[in-house]
Amino acid sequence: MEKRIILVTGATGAQGGSVAHALLKDGKFAVRCLTRDIASQNAQNLRRAGAELVQGDLDDLDSLLVAMHNCYGVFGVTNFWEHFDKELQQGRNLVDAVHESNIQHFIFSSLPSYNKLSNGELSVPHCDIKAELEDYSKSLGIKATYVHIAFYYENFLTFFPFQKNEDGNFHFGFPQGDTKLSMVAAEDFGPIIANIFEHGEQYIGRVVGVVAEDRSCSEYAETMSEVFGEKVIYDYIPREIYASFGFPGAEELANMFECQRLYIPGRQRDMEESYKLNPKMQNLETWLKRNKEKFSFMEERETVEA
Question: Could you give all domains of the chain from N- to C-terminal order, each with its CATH number?
Fold first, then answer.
């Protein structure tokens, strides 16, 4: 009996790549990966791992329809930080293709509407657009599961690297305050999606949160200090100050953390369900120890001290 086919969009990115590799490792479905560049190194790695590659992108509805031919399921993810407001139309193309292709299980990586959570006071487009797409998918009656992934541990390597201050300690900061910040390793996302596809009847029609840790930023800083053997400090930066920093996306991120501080006190239930779906998820301490060499700021400090 032939395996049912799952199409993975964004397969060369963090979420899609995690999903594709998890599905390939699990072996219960055939994996088809949508990519704009079949010749890329990440795409070829997926091919060698057993995936079928199809060329296309979210701007091209026809390419999506071709990619979804004979598929049972689709994992969909859109990327605001690459395409910005264009994400909305790309997401609608994806949802329309799923609807037209009569996909039996669509798993969409979405997020809650922070605009609604804050009663219209805080606009966070990279969340609000995904929430709008989730609502659009629901309006079409698509057989779907919507997953809301937490803040990546990996963000400390990209968006929020530690800064060494005059006190000699390492700092990170944003407007989260003392409210718990849910986090997860991007690589641990894939096994959760594979499990949801395997048990679709239990999850179609549901929203599932993906969370591995749910603690305060000060507690995370303590864990970081223990792992690195260096003092790491979390600084609460009020929304107005963070928004004034002026880098691209500063106000949006300030609004995101402010909304979480005020309206999302914790995600314990999401964390409990996530560990049931993927018992091997890493807590922050485990992930930091496995990825310690990626934090180049430690090497820079050691070089200076030597």
Answer: 5-150+186-211 (3.40.50.720)
